[in-house]
Amino acid sequence: MPQIPVTRTATDRPPVPDVLVIGGGIIGLATAWRAAQRGLSVTVADPRPGRGAARVAAGMLAAVTELHYGEQTLLGLNLESARRYPGFAAELEEASGRDIGYRACGTLAVALDADDRAHLRELHALHLRSGLESQWLSGRECRRLEPMLAPGVRGGLRVDGDHQVDPRRLAGALVTACERAGVAFHLGWAERLSVAGGRATGAVLDNGTAVDAGQVVLAGGSLSGRLGGVPEDVLPPVRPVKGQVLRLTVPPSHAPFLSRTVRAVVRGSQVYLVPRESGELVIGATSEELGWDTTVTAGGVYELLRDAHELVPGITELPLTETRAGLRPCSPDNAPLLGPTALPGLLLATGHHRNGVLLAPVTGDVLATALSTGVLPEEARPFTPRRFSPLSQEQPV
Ligand code: GLY
Predict the structure, then answer these.
(1) How many structural domains is the chain composed of?
(2) Residue pLDDT, tens place only, 176-198
(3) Ligand 1 in contact with 132 (CB < 6 A)?
(4) CB-ligand 1 contact for 329 (6 Å cutoff)
């Protein structure tokens, strides 16, 4: 049968979405979902939405136990996002029909020797000065709380406000919630930002598709600094920091194994054990500046198991079910870049470093506000990308 030629007119073209989100990880998806809820038409470009770093992350919501000196401003944003988590989780579970594994379990940070103990005492003092809830426990009190802890534990901090979520479930639920909210997906990676008349107008994907949009959000995680076509002074200064993570399984015969997240600094390296209700036990994480390498190494696995074993000797009996490495998107001050850039039409939601899962609720909210009103909410202003472009700091946010 002869084909009837179709004549396309301007009105036949697919409508230009209000927003293109580059990157379908937890941050990009939270942004897309919240923007769609505000009535914006949204498209996400990502070859595998919901995969990437979300497959690796342990999902600790550790605003208090991961507090560092000099990061009080970031603490404020972390606490604000932790405060929003219960509502965010309930709303997302309702919207997606999926459980995201949010668990208000608390965290115990312990010390194994005199140096660790002194360090943890200092952290406790910082917590108290910052008005945070954090309770000092003796070694015996720690073991009463978590009987699987090593007899050598010298003391610890009980932080009942640092919880956990399952990042894989969270990402899956966000994909479903986005689809149900009308978000469209392009299964390709954005190679090049399109710029016309001095503003961002969309992106060209690796399959050659040009996606136009009213505004563009760059939420590409550690890859955010590699998007072509972005002016030099606007390109986010984000670098990859590798983290290797292990997954073990606690058989029902060994449950309850741990009832809360347990963490420590062992020989200068962070180690944490995150127990899920499903029986999964996540052990993380290395922190390595090795560029784009995501190899799981014998040394990385050895160090994690060695340090975790010092904390909780019983882990050696558990099946090791998965090893994986991912890349954290790290900025020069360890804080995220949120909101409009000096290039009209281009916003950033990247650089979340160790806090991407924790910061998803507040990031989604503030980006959706910035996209729909043009105004970056107060709580996000210290994190404007313009703090890294001195020449453009005078412009209104
Ligand atoms: N927030 C834990 C990590 O990045 O390893």
Answers:
(1) 2
(2) 999 999 999 999 999 999 999 99
(3) no
(4) no
